[in-house]
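About this split. The held-out portion is used to measure sequence recovery: a designer receives only the structure tokens and must propose an amino acid at every position. Recovery is the fraction of positions where the proposal matches the reference. Here is one held-out target exactly as it appears in the evaluation file.
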């Protein structure tokens, strides 16, 4: 079993920045890929980006690729989502997710483990 704990959410003005963290514990040696999803009010849970647990290859959704960055610090068992130049459309609950090898990499159903979510609100 793997546990994920997110932190770093909050309120920010449009144009501002936030950094989310997600720390994994438990059987982390089984992990292959980590991701961030978000759920805006009244919408489905959408893919934001993912990264290999070992580091390196990342993928970001087109809507955030020029503003968000994903990174991993294996020594801390933590991934980060750096969000810059934020806008009100980024307002959502942000979820950290983790998966073992295999299965979808961009859909929520492909991920085995989930954090509790952290609220991000961007004011105009």
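Reference sequence for scoring:
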């Amino acid at each position: 079993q793997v546990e994920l704990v997110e932190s770093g959410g909050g309120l920010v003005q449009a144009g501002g920045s936030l950094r989310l963290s997600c720390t994994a514990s438990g059987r982390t040696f089984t992990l292959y890929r980590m991701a961030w999803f978000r759920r805006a009010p009244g919408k489905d849970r959408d893919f934001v980006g993912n990264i290999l647990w070992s580091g390196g290859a990342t993928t970001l959704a087109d809507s955030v690729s020029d503003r968000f960055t994903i990174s991993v610090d294996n020594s801390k068992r933590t991934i980060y989502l750096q969000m810059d130049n934020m806008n009100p459309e980024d307002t959502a609950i942000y979820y950290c997710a983790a998966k073992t090898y295999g299965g979808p990499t961009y859909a929520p159903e492909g991920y085995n483990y989930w954090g509790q979510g952290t609220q991000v609100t961007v004011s105009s």
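Annotator remark: The longest strand covers residues 18-26.
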